[in-house]
Amino acid sequence: KTTIRADNEVEAHREANNYKFGFRKWKGNVTEKPIEDQSDIIQELHSDLSIVKPQEGSVATFGNVVYVIFFGWWISLIYLLICPVMFLTILGVPYGKLCLKMAWYFIWPFGKSIEKVIDGADGAEKDSAPLLMSTPIPVRIAVPEPPAQKTSKHWVKKSLYHLQCRVSTYVWLLLGFPVLAVVHSLACVLSWLPVFTIPVAKMNARALTVVLLMEPEDIQIHMLDTVDIYTCECESRVVLCCYHAFNVYFYKYTVQGINIFALNLLPLVFITIIFGYADREHNLCSSETKFATAITSIIPLSYYIGMGIASISAQSNFAVGAVVNATFGSISEMTFYITALLHGYHTGTKCYEEIVKAALTGTLLGCILFVPGICMIIGGIRHSEQRFNSRSAGVSSALLFISVGGVFAPTIFSKAFGNLVCESCTNIPGNGSVPFVCKDCHYDTFSGYSSVPFSLVVPLVYTVSVLLPAAYLIGLIFTLKTHSHIYDIHISDGHGGHAHGGHHVVHWSRLRALGVLIAATILMACCADLCTQNIEPILTHSFISQYFISVTVLAMVPELPEIVNGIQFALQNNISLSLEVGSCIAVQVCMIQIPLLILFNAFYDVGFVLVFSDIHLWASIFSVILVNYIFMDGKCDYFQGTALVVVYLILLALYFFAPSPRSC
């Protein structure tokens, strides 16, 4: 029995979908959770750097020192260069003094606070703005009422002062602010992209949008210590306060539910597509660079497709969720496979067909061995021994046996009844026992369409392509309808269930999620097309076997978001879902993706025939047998995970040293 806690009905539906066979497993939330209900770490990640709190430990950390080396010195230097310019204008003297303050602040901002002085003219702001704080709860400081204005002479002086301030502001906005806007924007971009230095980006953004637009006389910079925090009686409010430039927990940071890594990689997608199609002559960047960026761009697109599927499924009934998962669940891989086959067909080479077969096998091996193996290792290190539902794992194992048996049935048939063809044979005179020595021998069933083996392989392939989806459908009915009790999942919010539905705001509505799916699919097709266009130099000039490139890079890069989900499940001691992540992908490869490729080839003949090389055949069969042996007892630890990963690495070594396919 597995009990899962969920915050609302939509999240409960998403959690339940994770345990359904054929549904894509998704770890992240699809609804917005109030910030006050989240952990202290998440609240700190989303803070606006305007909270002063008791400092724990020293601010002289390694990350802060790195900030000085990469950011602090040159930002401070720019302020020092602008300072004399403002002084020379006479009217910009107040802003020259501000530049001196900011230069002193940015060289080492940690443990300092930028505060805005509140005078009598800012009474309304005093009543509402949070002042200096010792905890995340605002501490308001009482300020006496401003004195009444008594004379007209005072009013005249004040008017002249504001006029001078307006003129100095124009000088500042003309000479100083534009340069600093470029500097802080550059610092924001450079510190935002590495993710873990986002506090530096937030600090620069707040300085640009808030501090530099304030009146310079109202800005004060103070060192923070315990005495300041608890005894401050000043009439000011904190505008900016930063303690650390580096925070390792920013890998959890999200924007509108989107993980920060997927968000940061999104510009790479558009840059890749623009340069990939605009620079066809490779004047700006090489084919290898275009291939690397295109294959990397598939990672965030796979993430967006996964989140879109999870969002629609969590807000829809079972039928809609099943259709969405079946249509879009394999779209990442299918776009690459089809574009590769089309490219090979138009260029008249069978090499791309071999690449597709190697990528299919690599996905199968990675999801059978590497994904559960790495999840067992990470989860086992944290939780010693983990248990999972052996019966549900048994269903997945049975489907894996059916899948591998069906996919490789035409290959076994060709080995049994094909013609043995050798590239070169040498006659050895005088040797009666071994008259010929032949090299590079293989079974050839495609020497001609009139050959008997080929005429039998084609209908066998079509038969398999019908039986495999049928077995997948039976698996859906078995696990989701007639025998759904084998999962025994109970979802609770800890407050008596979801009878009232609860208040929740989804990150993506169904319409928005559908739009994201369609857009991500189109972008995925473009990136896959660029991969196939620019992979040829890597295949021809690389000393690495084409087999190895296909079973590693082309096979596993699109699955990285799924691998991350599996690891997160394992860390939460939910190894059952971690194992289902790999099994689900492997089953979909064999029972959905390969039949779809055969169907595509039936309508648009690109020469794809479901016959694999020996190395793919025996590696897949051995992997399925091994993983079924591991899953038998319903428990696992890091040693079993290590065994799976080691076997996977051995197979990769086999592919690494294997000669490239004959067609390549």
TrEMBL record:
Q: Which residues form the Inner membrane component domain?
A: 62-112
Topology of this chain in the membrane = Multi-pass membrane protein
Localization in the cell: Endomembrane system
Give an example GO molecular function: calcium:proton antiporter activity
GO biological process terms held by the UniProt record: intracellular calcium ion homeostasis
Sodium/calcium exchanger membrane region domain segment(s):
291-409, 513-655
Q: What is its main location?
A: membrane
Entry's transmembrane regions: 65-93, 170-193, 258-279, 291-312, 318-343, 355-381, 393-413, 456-478, 577-600, 607-632, 638-658
Gene3D superfamilies attached to this UniProt entry: NCX, central ion-binding region
What InterPro entries does the entry give?
Answer: CaH_exchang (IPR004713), NaCa_Exmemb (IPR004837), NCX_ion-bd_dom_sf (IPR044880), YccF (IPR005185)
- Which terms in the GO cellular component ontology are assigned? endomembrane system; vacuolar membrane
Q: Which Pfam families match?
A: Na_Ca_ex, YccF
Keywords associated with the record: Antiport, Calcium, Calcium transport, Ion transport, Membrane, Phosphoprotein, Transmembrane, Transmembrane helix, Transport
Superkingdom to which the source organism belongs: Eukaryota
Mind telling me which PANTHER family this protein's record contains? VACUOLAR CALCIUM ION TRANSPORTER (PTHR31503), VNX1 PROTEIN (PTHR31503:SF10)
Name of the protein = Cation/H+ exchanger protein 1
Q: What is the lineage of its organism?
A: Eukaryota, Metazoa, Chordata, Craniata, Vertebrata
